[in-house]
Inverse folding.
């Protein structure tokens, strides 16, 4: 379960940013998680709740924004958003697609307690 290592890295980043901005704590952590990021949102939330207790995030609320997969079809040139793990164009059925979004996980916002 690599979500634990992802959360540990996230906590280190939060600690560093809180220190940099002289914050007493962090009230909210907002993440963007792509469908193809390889991260399971439920497991990530569970890991966050477990590991936050001994960190600057101990009172933080975790907000997960699930990013749909955005595909650009190289055959029919259609851009589509899908909420499942697929590379098939929804317009023409081709698998000759390019993933343009939905593969990453990003820290989007921290609400600091200053």
């Amino acid at each position: 379960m690599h979500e634990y290592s992802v959360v540990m890295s996230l906590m280190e980043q939060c600690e560093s940013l809180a220190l940099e901005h002289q914050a007493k704590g962090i009230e909210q952590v907002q993440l963007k998680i792509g469908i193809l990021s390889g991260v399971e949102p439920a497991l990530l939330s569970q890991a966050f709740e477990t590991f936050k207790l001994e960190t600057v995030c101990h009172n933080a609320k975790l907000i997960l924004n699930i990013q749909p997969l955005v595909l650009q079809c190289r055959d029919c040139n259609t851009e589509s958003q899908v909420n499942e793990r697929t590379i098939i164009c929804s317009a023409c059925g081709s698998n000759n697609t390019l993933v343009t979004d939905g593969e990453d996980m990003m820290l989007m916002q921290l609400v600091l307690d200053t």
Summary: The radius of gyration is 17 Å.
